[in-house]
Amino acid sequence: MSQFIFNCIKYVVTQTLYFIAGFSPRSRKAVMGCYKNKFADNSKYLFLHWQRAMTIRAIWLSGDKNLVTTLNHQGFEAYYRWSVKGIYHALTAKYYVYNSYIGDVNQYFARGAIKINLWHGSPLKRIEYDINNGPLLKVYHPKTLRDKFVSSTQFHQQKIRPDHMVAPSDLVAQLFAGAFRINQQQMILSGNPRTDYFKRYPQQSKRIKSDLKLSLIDELKQINQVKQVILYAPSWRDNSALAKSSKPADSNQYTKAIDFEALSASLVKNQQLLLLRLHPNEAELAEAMKNHPNILNISDWQDTYEIINDIDLLITDYSSLYIDMLQTKADIVFFQFDQQEYQSDSRQCYPYADDLPMAGEVLTEYHQLADYLENLSQNPNIISLANKKNRAELAQLYWQYQHNECFNQLDKLVSA
Which of 164, 192, 252, 377 keeps 20 to 30 A from 112, CA to CA? Predict the structure, then answer.
């Protein structure tokens, strides 16, 4: 069967199922899910809140049977996406709650439900229909007939507009509205579940961190000597998928940019622990960097929000994770070892980002990063007055409504 015929059949089946689902009666319950079949990010923390507050019957759907079993053992209602019960609840739930696209839950049965997209990042890089370069351009702005056909057959869920989104500031609300082609009136102006959860339930943070520390002790025998915890969480490069098919299998941009053996020795000397967190789309690259003292690969963790308040330094590059970290005490460094390549091959940032004050130092060479870590070990309060001022300005820009707790707003929405 040719690829063309296969895509035609897929398109017809997808659209037919989605259309028919719109006639299914729906009751007051929420089906929830996450990208990559994880239990993570905003939908996870809203799910946990709804389990505790019993605001609404919340059901987790996933394509990972092991995750479903784990959640069931913890007393949560969860089903395999393609089980009879999973399909039934996807067809009959009034609310779909997800972190990226409706496929986090089920992309075929969402028509007729109220779709709440909590999104998984902040709009620093262009997203969705605002994308104007890079490999994702063909998804949202196909030009040729072939590209339009491929876009319509392979990217069904990317084209489904949410009914509501959470935006922690007017800027974010404006950008989300444009990128997803919805009205600003559809925005819920509040903090995010992933950052609000431990404010609402601080005792949960203590319990989870205790469990995580036990796992760290198991992995690193000298954990008691560690004085500073560093999180390295680089952004996913949009061209990574293309690179896999065009570059040798042993090509690893991180091992080329960082001497991990030397870094490990420096971390041991400085009594620092580096948590390595690669994006789920390239997590396999971490295998080459994990067997070094004081470097712990946490790329397979469901998420890192349980520990962000215990991080002393975030090292990132172009990731909007730093925006969440503005609410913590952590220092922030931008290690942009591939500036030129990234700017030419990956999504551009929004124009407003060019005028943003920097939340931390920008480094491009490994020796600069090594010197920074050495300095940090000697001067824990390394954040400059200028960066503190910048961070306060950025916090107002991105977290204008951080005191407007999201759970109150979302509870009202599903209780109406």
Answer: 192
